[in-house]
Specification:
heterodimer; A: alpha+beta; 22% strand; B: alpha+beta; three-stranded antiparallel sheet; 8 helices; 13 strands; 32% strand; globular
Chain lengths: 86, 309
């Protein structure tokens, strides 16, 4: 279960965005779910850089096109989990 | 909304009037420029990737969506501009405008797979719930002047603090066995409570598996979604299955109606076999639809249920 330390170990957090967000006009819960496998899991082919080498400001640019902003992000050994503004 | 980025895979899940597919152009530019990946392309310039899924339930207010997201056919046309070998499915009843849509590409087997990949335990379980019980929905309303423990450390803030408190109050961090007594798996949590209402959270188990929850509690269009790629049976050493997971979620939200989808590569798995009859363990709900698709190397199970009156 989650412990309070999880409030202090973000890899990234946008406090300004967090304080300004307002969900009064939210009305559409159902999501659009996109999953892209560029290579198979346990990929034996491609060495070198991975998706996780894409910098945060690049993700922020890409997500702007989706009309989302990055609220916070947690990094683990195998994935980066972004919480977004919508 | 959430984004999960792995070495070679990403999952982007966005709600509201977001324009999810409009990220594709920039995403591919970024990948080709920054990662120097030379992605497979067909002669007519379409990407031939290992696998692509895009899915969504019918919207509650489709005409309020932006651009191509106003209707499924336009989304499919847009996806087909990028990807080779995509197929589109409408799953469930079309007459009720609450069916589920899926776009999936044929797996590109031209890229050699490492041996252990074949036995990959990839599965995705999604539960989409509408007309939440009002008392349950209210747990995700924090109101404009909710006091919370003031940020104690410089990188804490109110939205995340409230999100943490919502997680603890609703026990959404206890869906999968992960307390220190019964598991030594790592568990990471990130949650945010929106003002005046709403909740989003990402949980990561064992560094590589996630589940994510998004709640829009407003009366009239209340909604909650749960999505997980956790292979529950294996990860709990047989102590838990997807029925346990589903019962925990239904208890938190008590929806009047919900759909669930379960993707697996291995339809002989205990998880898949168990889920085929899962409605028999839900006496409060009546089964509306039960559909199984054989999608080349994945099996898809879809079920829609409604609370008995």
């Amino acid at each position: 279960t989650v412990t309070i330390k999880e409030l202090t170990n973000h890899s990234y957090i946008d406090h300004e965005l967090s304080a300004s967000l307002d969900s009064t006009d939210a009305f559409e819960g159902p999501e659009k779910l996109l999953e892209i496998w560029f290579f198979p899991p346990n990929n034996a082919v491609s060495a070198g850089k991975t998706l996780r080498d894409i910098a945060m400001d690049r993700w922020i640019e890409i997500l702007k096109l989706v009309k989302c902003e990055v609220l916070s992000m947690k990094k683990t050994k195998e994935l980066d989990a972004f919480l977004l503004s919508e | 909304s959430s984004l999960f980025v792995f070495d070679y895979k990403l999952t982007l899940k966005t709600c509201g009037t977001t324009t999810t597919l409009f990220c594709l152009d920039k995403l591919f530019q970024t990948i080709e420029q920054e990662l120097s990946w030379n992605l497979h392309k067909t002669p007519d310039g379409k990407y031939k990737l290992f696998k692509v899924f895009y899915s969504r339930r019918c919207f509650l207010f489709p005409c309020k969506q932006a651009a191509i997201h106003q209707n499924w056919a336009d989304e499919v046309d847009y996806l087909n501009r990028f990807f080779d070998n995509g197929k589109s499915y409408s799953v469930g009843r079309n007459d009720k405008s609450n069916h589920w849509n899926l776009y999936v590409t044929e797996t590109d087997h031209s890229v050699p797979q490492a041996k252990e990949c074949i036995e990959d335990d990839d599965e995705t379980f999604e539960v989409l719930m509408t007309e939440l019980d009002p008392d349950c929905a209210n747990k995700f309303v924090c109101g404009p002047d909710t006091s919370t423990s003031a940020p104690a450390e410089p990188n804490e803030d109110k939205g995340h603090n409230l999100g943490y408190e919502m997680t603890k109050k609703t026990k959404l961090d206890e869906i999968y066995l992960n307390s220190s007594q019964d598991s030594n798996l790592s568990f990471h949590h990130d949650a945010f409570a929106f003002t005046p209402c709403g909740y989003s959270s990402n949980m990561v188990l064992d560094e590589k598996y996630y589940y994510t929850l998004h709640v829009t509690p407003e009366k009239g269009w209340s909604y909650a979604s749960f999505e997980s790629n956790i292979p529950v049976f294996d990860i709990s050493q047989g102590k838990q299955d997807n029925l346990n997971v589903l019962l925990h979620i239904l208890n938190v939200f008590q929806p009047r109606e919900f759909s669930m989808t379960f993707f697996t590569k291995n339809f002989k798995s205990k998880s898949f076999q168990k889920i085929l009859t899962i409605n028999e363990s839900l006496p409060e709900y009546t089964k509306l639809d039960k559909i199984i698709y054989d999608l080349d190397d994945y099996h898809l199970f879809y079920m829609k249920l409604q609370k008995k009156i």
